[in-house]
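User: Show me sequence and structure for the first protein, then do the same for the second.

Assistant: Starting with the first protein.
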Amino acid sequence: MTRALAGRISYSPPKSQGWGHSVSRLSPVQLYELTEMFLREQTIQFGESTQEFTILWEPANAGPIAATINALPLFAGPGREDRTGSVANRLYRRISQKVELASLRGAVELVQNLEPELKKQGGLACCTLHRSVQFRWRDSSGSSAAVPERNSIMMLGISFGRPRGISTMFGFDSVQHYRRIQEYLKRIGLATLSDKHIRPKDALACARLD
């Protein structure tokens, strides 16, 4: 990963912060729309995007959950894992399903619709939807060209369920580029990049001396 992010400046919040940037103030659909805007306007995607949905609930108290799951075409395809288990003498069912990119919006809406019902169940009941995207930066002109100076591959991780957040493993060719992306993410309300997570630590101070 160090090699993939090679460049003058790297940005990656500490692993102790889980997803790095909490976005619990956003609904799943709002998070989807903002990350799609970011990826469309600032990046050129490289390789495949991966998505996986997981739901964990108590069958005895399922209510509409089981019927919803069984009726959805989303869960009829390959890549499904269906397990049952018990925790503290309470039976739980867990389904994981790979999600095609074309079905991602529908899966995000499903997470948003299921959250209130799962919250009523309490305990371990929850649903998650994770997306991982590899990309290169789009050049500042907004063209279809990648930033020419570096061929580094960046990564954006997105958690649409609980905890809701994004994980940023970014590299920048210059302080100016970092500041531009920092300002953009703040302006659209997606995330606030903190200078304390910049490496090397003296990158910003050195730029002021140039």
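Switching to the second protein now.
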Amino acid sequence: MNRKCAYGICGADIYAVPMKTIPHLKFLRGRESGITVIEVMVSAVLLTLMMLGLTGLNTMCRSIIRSQRETALASYTVERAAENLRERNWSQVSSAAGVQTWLQGLTGDGLTQLNAPRMKVTVAPYPPLVPAPTPIVVERAANGTCTITSQPPSGFSLRSLLAVRVDIQLKWTSANGNRERTRELASVVSLSGLLK
């Protein structure tokens, strides 16, 4: 053989050479080339651990997505409520009975799809007066009933003002761990519309 090859073996001749003559395959001597039951069990355990890790990751990702979906729906609901209130006339925005009637009739996906949604609307003078009068506060319970929890004294009316600050708060119980979550929006509404 006048060709120079590694270990005296060239190209296709490798399969014809006994294993004893190839030094880097010495570990296969005296054994069959296969896998043992222990190796199969170890790889099954590793595969199981990997699958459990992926299942936990999947569960966590679904929980985060559900939470973000709730947050987006709540934000949309609060923004729509502010737009809806802005469309009302001044006497409805500046009186406790008007805010209560508006809040009672408010509908939206967030009020039907969120778990136990509760809304609170606060209407106060803008710019703030000194001493600050009692604001109008109307709350809507999860069952849809609305109650006036505070309003200015009978000698003071928000109707005489040019602008009011409206705070809308939506609370609900999250499907993730039954935590209470909140979204809030504040807006200034003037006698002639929304102030920017």
